[in-house]
Amino acid sequence: MSQLKNRLNRLKKTQASIDNKVISSHLKGGEWGEVGAVTKTNAYGSFVKREIRIPLQEKIGFYPLYQLVGSAQALSHLQSIKSNVLHDKMLFFDTETTGLGIGAGNVPFMLGIGYYTDDAFIVEQLFIRNPSEELAMLAYINEKFQHFTHLVSYNGKTFDLPLLKNRFIIHRLTYEGEHLEHIDLLYPARSLWRNSLTTCKLSHVERKRLGIHRVDDVPGSMAPTLYFKYLIEKDPNIVADVFRHNKVDIVTLAILSIYFVSLFEKRDVYSNLELDELYRLCVWFNNMELTDLFQYVYELLTTRVIEEDPNYFIPLAMIFKKKKDVETSVSLWKKFIELQGHQRIINTEPYIELAKYYEHRKKDFKQAIYYTKEAELRVYNRISLSKRNQKYTEILQEIQKRKNRLEKKIKSRVNEVDQNSVVELRQVEMNV
DNA sequence: GGAATGGATGAGAATGGCGG
DNA sequence: CCGCCATTCTCATCCATTCC
């Protein structure tokens, strides 16, 4: 055990020295050992491989790596994943390429993969020193695919994987990863943070939500330039930063997975969320049909919405309307009006929705016309406040149309009642 | 510069109530 | 039964975003 610990510590040290850029310039370029990499050879040729072991208890940002152990299954809700998700059957995946297109001119010069073993998280980085090494690298990763069931990436569905498949075709290799289900974390990230983060780029997400702060990171957009420079000068130190960048990307994929999983099982994390995140989470659980989680988050959300921003009652009401639970929608619209009705500028949607509800479902035209008139009043306020009122005059016309219709309906109902009472009277007379 | 994705927006069909 | 109108449901289409 202590032997293992020693070994881990030793590995940790070498890795730290690489990360701290102790790759010093007095060791003249050319030696791959300097970046902690070795030459790997297989039946198709050679390429360079760097392997890093990270102990599972290591904390990356806010979360330790071991948190995914035994709890990866929840990730299946993020995309329509059918098979069981096990942490040690997931292959985290990110490439560095010579450009952004997925056409033939774009070459992946580095493939970064990450996976869990019993005692560590392993990052393997495959790098080609020239185009002729690509085939050997592809063959290597092809064999790796066999040991996993799920691929995890960030925008990999549109970028990394199509590109990689193209390379297989160009090299006349059969892609052996068709069995892999693909979890692309970009989409859940966007649906959760589209409003609360200015951008959902991986580097921004990890800094703002995972507590991971990169130091001296080279942006991905620098990768092509650095690689071309390497091709000319053949000094591994030139691409040392690309290795480091790619490694963080891979590790971030694991930590982001942990974060998502925690949303499904650690209900105490909800109190740290921004209001909009909590709302988006509510939408998640509703769409995923996880009723318990939905109910829990919904209740938490409503108490916060009252204090922080009653406007959220409106989309929430629409969720229940879609679920055909209109009574709940009605209570939310009314709650909104109760809290916001006094404001000069206010969304009229709840008034209109309530008017529809009373006209069409309850046939209570008086209530319907009451809410219509309330809406009309608010729009008047708007128009008097703004010069550019084209939009609001249209809304106003719509409202007045509704009002006129309701007035007619009320009138005709009064007539109906009169006629009915006349009929009743006649019947009484006949009976007499 | 290519493409999967989800959200927003819109068009068209289906529904349903109402009056003639 | 038919025409009219408002609403709702279902697709279709568009648009921005993200990867290096």
TrEMBL record:
InterPro entries: RNaseH-like_sf, RNaseH_sf, YprB_RNase_H-like_dom. It holds the Pfam family RNase_H_2. Keywords: Coiled coil. It comes from the Bacteria. One of its GO terms (molecular function) is nucleic acid binding. Residues 91-257 form the YprB ribonuclease H-like domain. Residues 389-416 form a coiled coil. This is YprB ribonuclease H-like domain-containing protein. It comes from Chengkuizengella marina.
